[in-house]
Amino acid sequence: MLLGTQRISAKGHLEIGGCDAVELARRFGTPLYVMDEAAIRQRCREFRRAFETRHPDSAVAFAAKAFLTLAMCRIADQEGLWMDAASSGEMRAAVTAGFPAEKLYLHGNYKKEEELSSALEIGVGFIVVDSEWELEVLKRAASRLKKKARILIRVTPGVESHTHTYIETGQIDNKFGLPVATGQALRAVRAALAMPEIELVGLHCHIGSQVFVLKPFETATQIMVSLAARIRDELGFTLREINMGGGLGVRYRSSDSPPSPDEYAEAIISTARDAGSRHNFAMPRLVVEPGRAIVGEAGTTLYSVGVVKPIPGARTYVSVDGGMSDNPRPALYQAVYEAIVANKADRKPSERVTIAGRHCESDILIDGIELPRIEPGDILAVQTTGAYNFTMASNYNRFPRPAVVLVADGRADIIVERQTEEDLLRGEIIPERLA
């Protein structure tokens, strides 16, 4: 499975963005995250075109939690995207990169008062309120700073999204948002409208991640428009925005077939129009927040192969120089990946192996994959690692985090430097009584 600008060169090597993956590994070391700039930009444009051609009053906000670097913030801004930040740290990174604060959405199920105050001082576009408690805290912060907080209220529509249970976020029993069915969402709207420090703009929902079917998005859209119409009818207030969150899936395997941005946009916008017509509710501004669907397939992780250990009657373990510290998703979600031997990309598979990481755990990256005969020193390229790999990386076993390079038109630029073992000790202190 070749993705984005990937191709197989005359040498039989994998190329990404016009760069030889084997040369990238030699030059920058491994493990190495490689991000395909052209593929990222193409997806940004596909999403914008899909929504804006169907409903001009639309916006696409990049979900920063999927892959956040200063360089990515610049790309998102250049491509006309808004941004969804899930913490004050993500918010600060965005504004440090020069991303317009007024195009930021701040999310989170528990935002501390200092974070909300910081958002107000920075001038973020919208704070997505997740609870009635947060409304009171935000009211207090806005009053103290003499600012007005523009908000969306996050609601849980009670929709099953048919994805892994750990990444479902639209059902009633969930830490995120205020359920529609219990009346809590409407109660929060009523409370927000009574607060002079708060400017309620719209509603937000998010049903889950890595979703491959459109029906849950359609159902959620119907519920959101119906709720907006009910707010108008019962409270006399017309909301100006509905934000449907993100969640569209990507290809981790050749057999995966997620909906395209056009299919996704058509499902949401046509459903919103139909629901609006039934309720005599004019189409508001529509916003979506793709993250994985923009950067997931644009990322590749390069590893160096070390130990190749056949176990007669069992399997052959191929150990690489990374693992769960740079990709925790197999351990967290049983995520499945495909890979290419970058220096043998033109060869046909000849053996089935298991790719193991080098951490002091079971640490299996790929549990069974057909590859050409693999040997120590080969470079393994694991596909679709652009989302939730770099951002979820850890220092387990004191492994330094990998570098990140951005490739385009044969050029490779470091956008995140590789950590060193010295970096891992920075900030640690031995108390004098232990010296």
**Tally of separate helices:** 12
Structural class: alpha/beta
CATH-defined topology of the largest domain: TIM Barrel
Distance between the termini: 55 Å
Strand residue content: 15-25%
Helix content: 25-40%
**Rg from C-alpha positions?**
23 Å
Report the CATH C-level class of the largest domain.
Alpha Beta
Number of beta strands: 21
Would you kindly provide a written description of the structure presented here, covering whatever features stand out?
- The protein has 2 domains: 7-36 and 296-425, Lyase, Ornithine Decarboxylase, Chain A, domain 1; 107-290, Alpha-Beta Barrel (TIM Barrel).
- It has 12 helices and 21 strands.
- Strand 14 and strand 15 form a beta hairpin.
- The protein has 435 residues and is of the alpha/beta class.
- Strands 4, 14, 15, 16, 17, 18, 19, 20 and 21 form a 9-stranded mixed sheet that branches.
Layout of helices and strands:
Layout: E1 7-8, E2 14-16, E3 19-20, H1 21-28, E4 32-36, H2 37-52, E5 58-63, H3 70-78, E6 82-85, H4 88-96, E7 104-106, H5 113-122, E8 126-129, H6 132-145, E9 149-156, E10 178-179, H7 184-193, E11 198-204, H8 215-235, E12 241-243, H9 261-279, E13 285-288, H10 292-295, E14 299-310, E15 316-320, H11 329-333, E16 339-341, E17 351-356, E18 364-371, E19 379-383, E20 403-408, E21 411-416, H12 421-425
Parallel strand pairs: 4-20, 5-6, 5-13, 6-7, 7-8, 8-9, 9-10, 9-11, 11-12, 12-13, 15-17
Antiparallel strand pairs: 1-2, 2-3, 4-14, 14-15, 14-19, 16-19, 17-18, 20-21
Helix pairs in contact: 2-9, 5-6, 8-9
